[in-house]
Amino acid sequence: MVLNERNLIKLWDICFAGYNGGMDSRIVNWRGGGCDSVDAFATATEKLNCPYDGPSIMVMRFKHLQGRNKTYSNPLVFKHSDEQLNPRIDPDNVHRCYDPSMQLWSGGAPSEANNIPRWQQYSALMPSFDALHHHRQAAGQNATSQTTEVPGLAFQGSSRVVKHGMTLNKGEQNEKIIPPSETIQNGAGHLGASYVGVASVREGKGMFFNSRPFGSGTQVQVM
Amino acid sequence: MVSAKGRENFQNQLKQLIGSIQYSNDYDVHVALVQAPTYARTVDERYYSQDKNAWQRCREFVDLFGIMQKNQNALDLLIEEAKTTLRSWGSQDPTFMLTNSKLTMQMTMTPEKTNYMNHGPDGQKLLKQGPSLPSYRGLNIINTRSFATEEGARPRDLLNRRVRVAEYYVVSGVRRNEPGFIELYDQSKDTMFQIPFESLYTMSCLPNEDGGVAMGNDGNNDGADAGIAAGDQGNGGGQGGVANQAAMYRNAMGAPNIQLGGFMNTFEVNDVNNAFWRSQTVQALDAAQYMSCGSFVGPGIPTKLKFDNVDNGNTPILGNYRGIMERRYKRALPFLYEKNVPALLLDDQFNDFTYSVAETTASSLRVETQLNGETIKTFMKGVMNDDSNPNPFHFDTETLAGVKVATEMGHLDLYFCINMYAMSALVLNEHTARIPTVVRDFIMRLARIFEATSETETVFGSKYVFSQPKRRVDGTNTQGSPLPYDAAVFRKAANFVRVKRIGSNRAINPYSAVEYAMAVARDYILLACGTSEGDLPPLPSYVPDDEHPQRFDAHLAPPHEDDEDVCYDYVIVRPNIEHNMLGVVLGRGGKDELGCTFWGQTELSVYDDSMHGCPPPYTPPFLHVNVRQRACYVAHPCGLTLLCALFRKMGNVV
Known about the structure:
The complex is a heterodimer.
Chain A: E1 8-21, H1 38-46, E2 58-63, E3 76-77, H2 110-113, H3 116-125, H4 129-134, H5 139-145, E4 153-156, E5 159-163, E6 166-168, E7 176-178, E8 181-185, H6 198-201, E9 219-221
Antiparallel strand pairs in A: 3-4, 5-8, 6-7, 8-9
Chain B: H1 4-35, H2 39-46, H3 54-64, H4 67-70, H5 74-88, E1 96-99, H6 101-108, H7 111-114, H8 121-129, E2 135-136, E3 139-143, E4 146-147, E5 156-157, E6 160-175, E7 180-186, E8 191-196, H9 197-203, H10 222-229, H11 241-253, E9 259-267, H12 275-290, H13 321-339, H14 353-361, E10 363-367, H15 373-384, H16 397-409, E11 414-423, H17 425-428, H18 434-449, E12 458-460, H19 462-465, H20 487-493, H21 513-520, H22 550-556, E13 567-587, E14 623-625, E15 631-633, H23 637-650
Parallel strand pairs in B: 1-3, 9-11, 9-12
Antiparallel strand pairs in B: 1-13, 2-3, 4-5, 6-13, 7-8, 10-11, 14-15
Helix pairs in contact in B: 9-10, 10-18, 11-16, 12-14, 13-15, 15-16
């Protein structure tokens, strides 16, 4: 209870104080059991009273939209939900920040709609990120009750994609050479760029580089 | 009380009590502050229209996340922005900042503060005491305290909370067999790691889909494979009970000397006019599918496994090759079971061509010392008697655990090698692409089960197989690898092991197709099989596309969806990246600013944490506010009683 909130400003999550989990190389196994299974993943995700300990990575595969370079939203609603979404981004759950184009696949274009059933299948296996996000408390309550805050929106992270190239229809008339390429993407989300050495920064013991260690985010051909 | 010492003791006790009261009081204030509703909500509700769209709001809060590490002047920025916001709400500037000392620590470490030489005489004092930061930009800095709020849990800072954020990565337009990888950051190890496209495909398969790599009866272990393929060395997950079992045996027996390896032989068959070669090609692939058994090599004199009783080299094995293979090895199994012979030698002493083929298309298990008969039974049954599942690499977890048990209980060196003949482009063209994946993943799975580490002596045939081919046996250039991978991919996959040339272990036997293949493959990615009849000369001729062996297609040809023209987008999400994050509270406090916040206006609160016997911490009913808006935490009954009693007794001592 504070008598005059007008004189009070709380700024949450402004300083890293240590990594708990969720950014390692463990991949969720959609198909089986074990400690990286979907069930284990769901259990770890929904366990909000202790630091996260579970697989980190979900891999979803969709048909590439031929002839169309789809731009994925940033942020991205990565779990399909039949309910109306109204995610909030700020720690105090004040500001609504949803736009329909944030959906991973929207039914707007027919080509995209073809991928929705598959997305729904993945979403059915996922933990209830939408519900967890929807029911999340304000930061103060979370901090007092030691509850973890769960996101419903994903932001673009740092990655480097290397394609070695290949030859299609080799030896045939329509032979086509796919050249090697390298695509570098800098993180554009909460965590900013990720690079070797940033772990200490996210422990609260350093500063981010001001430069862009990963490059420009453009695609370059590698000879 | 009579003596000065007694009074001093009592005074100390009283101070301790006061400290405890203050501690509880601090806790109450912290809770009140962090749980206070934000005025931004009031503004938001009152003025429905938003000044920013959804994207701008996202950006605003994303940028704010961890801004202390992102911007050197973050705190200045935040304070000034807070002042602006407060003014826009009709308030005055804040007077205090409640913060974790971690935030202010960095400000005390700036060169201005720590360059003691430049401070003259004060520098020495500063050096002794260290820089302090009592106030900043007109705000009193109040460091938060950690509170023991739960029994058994360590005290914690209320401005510290666990927050998860999500990231996603996109790999766009990848063909089914396209070689490549995505590199991501692993914060737990502070390193980058790679996930090959092939693993992405496998790991994105839904439960009703075949990932192209069936690795176990329970299908539980694919995730682990990808993890290892991605260079994950120390991750013990993925094998569940087996991993535990492995750890158990490892603890019991000490670290066994395990040799684990696999090698893959790739050859081209250019001689299409030679029907025998064609048949051998298909045989090899068939056998590769249905795999097989192996050879057990003991410390004593090797005993040759007699296959002659089963069939001879003239058997046409195209159609029923699997059956023949099974008969062969099942015939061999009773020999193992009944005699419990620890030493059988299959590969090095095979001179007969047929057997060479059999050998080279089989997997072999070589155990350097004695094997336990029962575990061999377990293993071999798992390998060969599982007709329900034709996948050659369909070892169930139990079987592999059996191998491990055999290895570790007997202090054995296990050398597990897989000979896999992947036909290169000319005969079977792109369909062979599946085989290396299977083999590689199988090796990875083994590596995980056996907990291969950088210390594990591992023989991995990448030296021979995965080097980029330069030319074919006929002298023509290959124009790149006929297989959809190159050495780099497998070197990455082999990060966790020490790659070792198998040739350095064993002398090359010119009569062994395996050995010969490896010798040849040092320079070329081809195999000309060495037989007792001499080396078969390869011929520079080609197989037309329409002569692809249909049987092979039926087994290994990818489904239509996997045509190389079909492209996929992989959306990779990390939804649970969790950090501890700190916050700050800015506000107005102090006795001159009544009604602003509770800070500085609180009075005694005498309930305590659980260590001092009073049950619950903060309970709202005991919070009272007087009419003048002077906040006053009135006591918890038990504490109040105690305090009153103390006041009565102490009189004016306090």
